[in-house]
Each structure stands twice: as structure tokens, then as C-alpha cells.
Amino acid sequence: MAATSTPKTQQQLDRLSAALESGTFVDVKRMLNGLPPGDVAHLLESSTPRFRHILWKMVDLDNEGDIINELSDELRTHFLSDMDAAEVAQITEHLDDDDVADILQQLPEQVTREVLDAMDHQDRARLERVLHYPDDTAGGLMNTDTITIRARLTLDVVLRYLRRHEELPAMTDSLIVVNRNDRFVGLLPLRTLLVSDPSRTVREMMDTDVEPIPAYMPDDEVARLFERHDWVSAPVVDDDGQLLGRITIDDVVDVIREDADHSLTSMAGLEEDLDTFAPVFRTAQRRAIWLGLNLITAFVAASVINLFQGTIEKVVALAVLMPIVASMGGIAGTQTLTVLVRGMAMGQVSRSNGAWLINRELGVGILNGMLWATVVAVASSVWFEDWNIGMIIAAAMMINLVTAAFTGAALPLLLKRVNIDPALAGGVVLTTVTDVVGFVSFLGLATLFYG
Amino acid sequence: MAATSTPKTQQQLDRLSAALESGTFVDVKRMLNGLPPGDVAHLLESSTPRFRHILWKMVDLDNEGDIINELSDELRTHFLSDMDAAEVAQITEHLDDDDVADILQQLPEQVTREVLDAMDHQDRARLERVLHYPDDTAGGLMNTDTITIRARLTLDVVLRYLRRHEELPAMTDSLIVVNRNDRFVGLLPLRTLLVSDPSRTVREMMDTDVEPIPAYMPDDEVARLFERHDWVSAPVVDDDGQLLGRITIDDVVDVIREDADHSLTSMAGLEEDLDTFAPVFRTAQRRAIWLGLNLITAFVAASVINLFQGTIEKVVALAVLMPIVASMGGIAGTQTLTVLVRGMAMGQVSRSNGAWLINRELGVGILNGMLWATVVAVASSVWFEDWNIGMIIAAAMMINLVTAAFTGAALPLLLKRVNIDPALAGGVVLTTVTDVVGFVSFLGLATLFYG
User: Fold this and answer.
1) Which CATH number is B212's domain given?
2) Is A344 a domain residue?
């Protein structure tokens, strides 16, 4: 599906811009603070730095926490860096533990300490439980706002117990059943509670099939569990099966979005969770590294061409055709690499089927190599009225497309085994290989023939 | 975050492979049919064609519908193509309407007709309501399994009404309040129902702030609403405000995943929702078109080089250095293009801030152009002991990086305006531009100087 526009946000942005320009400051402020925090976060992320700054200053203090919580990491850090510990403590007061933990993890350690000190004992204890786990694990994703019940109660007692609450935590679709040692026993979905005879007990009606999530499970695995089981929330336990909290789908959606984003941005050498409207200097600085890295590989390819100066001097047509061989290798290799990186991110590629994928890609490389080598051979022969150059470029194209297929498939599997992110490193290594092999095979064969 | 492994799925796959190889067919069958449908779908998607076929044959007929429902489009079509209308009707009987609609939309029209004819009147009427809307709109995403109540009831009556149900539909987090004409009035969250005094009325406790989703809203906009408002489900209405059904977060998660996937696969010229383990011939066929398209652009670049044969003959070093200029332009342009495509997919880029982005990218292009032009100038001058060639490549690099920045930013905005998918077409056009401009500027300046 094509990228489509978002009329609503654009309308909001346009209306805000218009209001700002016509100077009705008070209207804009009221409009802005009437929007849901997610909408304001989206507006901030869709704004240029100057406009963003003006908008943020208009946000009421009461709304800052919720909005900060919805922002991407980069922008969040940006706004947080202007606050002191007391302000952070104040604006995060009413957020979920996992969200506060996320925010605290982005602050300098000393500020985090101060924020924790500013909290009451109970809040701090709960929060430290979440902070104990890395933020890309189930423990780092969880909230501690669970409603727990005991198995021996009747549903009628449970209903009366619920009515003693002011409100139930957001995304509560189940009550968590624990034993006297706080160990997870099962779930009582609200869907079940509401249709069951109130005189039944929790034990009779609860669902004990659910496997709770261990606190150290990586967040992408948690996301896949949610996707496959269509969960709205799920309990998190420690090694002893003791209930620590629960994960809710809204936080999982963020993980899914970030994971999917990771492959796209990393393959272009961009930081993940990037700020689309980052200012020019910061952007230039970040991109410079990637360009420098690619410049090195470009010089490697150039020095390969340099070896064949003599041959190119004799047959200048080689200089004309050589980029074709290198570029087709790069394109074919990138396709294979993307399929592998994507499959690995989706947890589809294992050791056993990795070998099958390399073979499949080799097959694809050979088939497309034969097809396009033939086309290139005919086109080049006709162009330069020289059947020899056609044969040479065909052979080089075949060699490079098969190399590209093998490298595109084997490289990410290898990189992953040595714990290097294939999405980030794969592209640079791959195009170096396809450039070098493309130039060496084409110019090398030509040297054998013409030299 | 780096792509991590999925121990659980891999263990399952490995165990299944082992069991299959040691011949305990019955065990495998029992194991497979004991797994949740999402897990089986993931196993099928992570399997090579042969193994996939064996697994599918072991799936019990009762489970086929749920598993088909969780599969990606390509695999789903594959398995459905072996079934006749009666089978499809049978396995989809207990699925949600939106899921059945998705499946029917992938079948030939005649089969869809037959499946609909095989259904009872009520099911057919409900399904036709969903089929009426394109599958990438809110209407196509919705289920019709809503529980509706009237505003004048007391909560006590509502609770008794719910208890008359066998079970509540999955992902029911709210009851939908409608008036006598079935027009949407508000939502009564279960969270509210459960903590409120049963003698209160629905009217007193319901939430009327919720804006229902119009049936023709594009699915990516629906997804953004869910993300920003942390919804679990949301009501869908027609133009008259009449309730049609509701959308649930599980279906929205699929939209989010697919949209994020779209940019990644399209930029590499791959079909979205692709089958990682598609067989060799089908894969080769699909990739061939993309390679052919890129071959044309490679020949365009080659014919540009061809114009400068005379100059290259005089100074062979030009042939050595020219790929550096083209490749750096391609890299820089791809970074810009990726930022734009991603920002557009996330609904952050509008007409007003598009101009700002073009300017920002131009600034980045100039800064990085100056930096790397200097580095390249020094490196080339030292290498070929010729300060002139250093000056020439520096000027060409500067021109190409600024062109790349402008093209990478302006092109997607332009393509979108003429309704061409920037993720798909952007890369091909961009690299053509950076190749041509790279070769023309470098070889052209060299011809002026050396010619």
C-alpha cells in the first residue's frame, strides 16, 4: 500500500500554523492543550525545530508528562535536557512505571538518583523493580499496576472487590490470580467474569493455560508472543514464578514499530528512532560517519580499477561498461540482503533453514545472471560492434550476480553469529564485495583477452 | 536494537524437524495441532517449501481456518488455491467477519460468490457489509461482533444482560451505546462498568468524548489513531453515524507491521508481505523485473561516460576515480530518500514542512559536500600526484552531493503528489540522477581542463 497522507494531522498543523501567524496565541494554547497527548506528540514530531519549540512552550505543565511519554527517544531527550530533577519528578508522577523507567533511563545517572529521591517510598520501590531490568526486556516493558485476586474467592466477591476501586488500570482485560506467595496461578479474563454465574469460584473459571512471560525475555520476542496470541496484556514473572507486573499491548505496539523501523533506518546508515526534523548541523554530523565509511570502500574499489589502467587505456569502452557490472551486483545483492535482514528480524531464519536460503539465492543468482548476462552481452556487442566485449561483460555479470547472491545471503547469517547487526553493517560490506568482484572480473577478463 | 534470535520458535522448528526425520509422524501431528494458530502460522512461514507442505498436510481441518487467518497474504493465497468453495466456507465458518472478508478478497470472484452462497442468510448479510468496503479502509478492517446497549439502562440491567451471553467477543473492552436508530452515542468501558454503582444508568457513566471511526478512513490513519490514543477497540460508523462494527487492536497491529514493512521491501524493489522462503523460480521471476529496470538506468549512466571517451583515453586516472563520485552521491541521496519515505509513511511530512526538509537536506549536502570534497581532493591529489585532478573531483563531489540532497528530498514529495509510491520508484530515479550527474560533472570538468 502506498504512503498516504494524514488529512487530520495536516489540518491540525495547518490550523495551528495559521493561528500562530495571525497571532491568536491564546487560541492556539487552548487548542493544543485540548488535544490527546499522542496527537500533541505527533504534532511536535511533525514540526520544524523553531515551530516545535514554540509549541512546547505552550503546553501546560500538567500535560508535559503524558506528551513526553509519547515522544520518540530523540525528541524526549531534547526536552528533558532542559528540566531539573524536581520538574521531571513532577511531570512523571502520574505515568505508568515502565514509562517513568524509560524516561529515567534517558537521563544522566545523577538526575535519575535525584528524581528517585524526590518520590515517596512506595513509588520508588515499585520503580526500582522495573529499573532493575534492561529496557529491552519484558521486565523493562512491564507496569506494576496489576489487579491480583486469589483462586478461592467467588466471582461475586471479586465483583464487589473491583467496585471498591476508583477505576481499573488502563488495558485491564484480565485479573491476575496469584497464590499466597504471590506466585502466578492463572488469569481471570473480564470477558469470563462478566458472563459467569457469580456464585462460581475464581478457581473454577480461571484460565491456567497461559504461560507467564519471564522478566528477562527480549522485547522483540515478547512482541511476537503478543502478535501470535492476540493478547491485550500478559503477566510477567521472575525466575521463581513470582508475579512482577504485566505488559500491555500499547507498549508492545511501540516495540513492533521500532523493530520494523530498525531494518529500514540501519540499512541506510541512519540512527533508529530518528527525528525527521532534526536541525541541519546535527543531521550533517550523523550522516558524515556513514559517508566516510562508504568513501573508504569507494577508494578500495577505485584502487582495484587502478590495477587495470593499462587495459583501460587500450580499450576505453571498458571504462564505459564497467559501472554496469558493479551496479547490477549491488542491486541484486541488496535485494538478497533485505530479504535476509527482514526474515531475521521476524524470527523466521534459523540455522537449519539458513543453508536452504543461501542455496535458493544462489539459484536465483544463476537464473537472473544467465538472463541479464545475455541481454547485456547483446546490448554491449551491438553498441561497441565487438562480440568479444559482449562475451567478457556477460561472464563478469554472471560471476558478480552469483557472488552478490551468495554474499547477500551468507553475510547477514555470519554477521549475526559474531553479534554484529546485519542491517547496519551488511550493506557496506556487500557493496564493497560486489564493486570489487565486479571490477576485477570484468577488467581482469578483459586484460586476459586484450592485454 | 539488534536482530535477536527467537529461541522458542527455533526450538519448536528444530524439534519438529527432528521428530519428522526420526519418523514419529503421529507425535509431530499431535504437537502441531496443540500449538496456538499464530505459532503454527509462524512455523509455516519459517519453513522451506517442502517442509511447509508436509506440515500443512498434518494440520487438522478444524485448525486450518485459524491458521490461514494468521498467515501472510502470499502463503494464504498459496494454501487457498488448493481448496474449493465448500472447503473455504467450512474452514472460515468461525472466523471474524473482517478476517473472512480478507480471505474472500484473495479468492477468484467466482469462488467468493460460491462461498457466500454456501453461508446462511445472516452470516452472508454481515459479511457483505464488510466486503462492501475496500480492505485497506476502516470498513474492511472491522468486525461486526459488537455488543450494543441503550443509554437509558441501569448498569445492573447491563450486567444481567451480559450474563445471558455464552461469552463476550475477544478484545471487548467497551460496550457500544447506540440510540434507537442504531446511531453511535458513546462507549461504556468495562473498566467503568465494573467499578461503578450498579444503580447508575449507562447515560451517566458512558464516555461520549470518543469520535467513532468513519468507514472509509484509510487503514494507516486508523492505525495512527489507535497508536496515539492507546485504544484496544474502536467503533466504526457510516456517513450517517450509524454503527457498522468495531475495529480491534490485533488487526491494527497487522496494519502497523505491514506499513512499516512496506518502506523496507519497496525500497529494495521487493513485493510487500513477501514470503521469505518462496521457491527459486518464483523468486527469480519477481526479482528479474527490478534488475531489468536498474539495467536500463545503468546503461543510461554508461552512455553518459561514453560521451567522454576522448578525455578518459588521455587521463586514465579519471576512469579510476569516477565511480567514487557516483557512489558517494548514491549513498547520500539514499539517506535523504529514506528519511523522507519514512517520515511520509509516519504521516509527519506535509506541504508546509516539506520545503523546510528540502532546505535542511540542502544544508546537510553542502556541509558534507565540503567535508568529503576536501578529503577526496587531498587523497586523489596525493595518489595521482596531480593537484588538478584533486580540484576537479572535489568540485564534482560537491555538485553531486548537493544534487543528491535535493533529489533525495524533492523527488519523494513530487512522486507522492502524482500518486507514485516514493518507496518503490524513488531509489531507481535517484541513483540514475546521482550516477548521471556524478559522471557528467566529473568527466565534464575534466574535459574542460584536460581537453
Assistant:
1) 3.10.580.10
2) yes
Asked whether the beta carbons of residue B349 and residue A70 sit closer than 8 angstroms, the reply is no
Does the CB of A328 have a partner CB in chain B at under 8 Å?
yes
A195 contact partners, CB below 8 Å, separation of at least 6: B162, B163, B165, B166, B167, B168
Helix axis angle, A85-92 to A61-70, nearest 10°: 80
Burial state string for B242-259 with b = 16 or more CB within 10 A and e = fewer than 16? ebbbbbbbbbbbbbbbbb
Q: Domain for residue A274, yes or no?
A: no
Cβ–Cβ contacts within 10 Å for residue A110, how many?
9
Residues of A in contact with B294 (CB under 8 A): 327-328, 331
Nearest Cα of chain A lies from the Cα of B446 at a distance, in angstroms, of 15
| pLDDT average, residue stretch A410-431 | 93
For residue A31, is pLDDT > 90? no
Whether B398 is in a domain gets the answer yes
B262 touches chain A (CB under 8 A): yes
| End-of-domain residue from the set A121, A141, A161 | A141
Residue A5 CB partners (closer than 8 Å, separation 6+): B347, B350, B416
Q: In total, how many domains does chain B have? A: 3
Residue B141 C-alpha cell reads as 478492517
Task: With a cut of 60, say whether residue B1 has pLDDT above it.
Answer: no
State chain B's mean pLDDT as an integer: 90
User: What residues of chain B lie within 8 A of the CB of A196, using their CB?
Assistant: 163
Q: Are A72 and A273 in contact (CB under 8 A)?
A: yes
Q: Choose from A197, A220, A276 for mutation: most chain B CBs within 10 A.
A: A276
- Domain-embedded: residue B264: no
* Coil/strand/helix, residue A142: coil
Q: What average pLDDT does range B288-316 have in this prediction? A: 95
Q: Three cell numbers at A132?
A: 532493575
CA gap A330, B239 in Å, rounded:
50
| Helical axes A219-229 vs B249-267, angle rounded to 10° | 120
B413-425 average pLDDT score:
93
Q: Is B180 on the interface with A (CB under 8 A)?
A: no
User: Same structural domain for residues A125 and A176?
Assistant: no
pLDDT at res. A125: 82
Of B99-103, B187-191, B427-431, the range with the lowest mean pLDDT is B99-103
CA distance A44 to A176: 37
Same domain, A201 and A254: yes
Chain B contact for A210 (CB, 8 A cutoff): no
| A284 lies in the same domain as A384 | yes
| pLDDT at residue A367 greater than cutoff 70 | yes
Instruction: Return the percent helix, strand and coil in chain A, to nearest 5.
Output: 70, 10, 25
Q: Across the beta sheet with B233-237, what order do the strands follow? A: B213-214, B233-237, B243-248
Whichever domain contains B63, its CATH number is 1.25.60.10
Of A192, A268, A291, the CB nearest to B372: A291
Co-location of A319 and A429 in the same domain: yes
Q: What is the pLDDT of residues B102-123, one digit of tens each?
A: 888 888 888 888 888 888 887 8
Shared-domain flag, residues B117 and B162: no
Interchain CB contacts (distance < 8 Å): A and B: 404
Confidence class of residue A363 from pLDDT cuts 50, 70 and 90?
A: very high
Spatial CB neighbours of A1, under 8 Å, sequence gap ≥ 6:
B136, B219, B220, B258, B259, B262, B272
Distances (CA, A) of B178 to B129, B158, B234, B256: 19, 14, 14, 29
The whole domain housing B196 covers: 148-248
Last residue within a domain, chosen from B141, B175, B207? B141
Q: At A387, which CATH number?
A: 1.10.357.20
Q: Do A256 and B261 touch (CB under 8 A)?
A: no
Task: Lowest mean pLDDT of A23-32, B2-11, B57-66, B368-377, name the range.
Answer: B2-11
Residues B35, B170 within the same domain: no
- Do B21 and B108 fall into the same domain? yes
State whether A166 and A310 are in the same domain: no
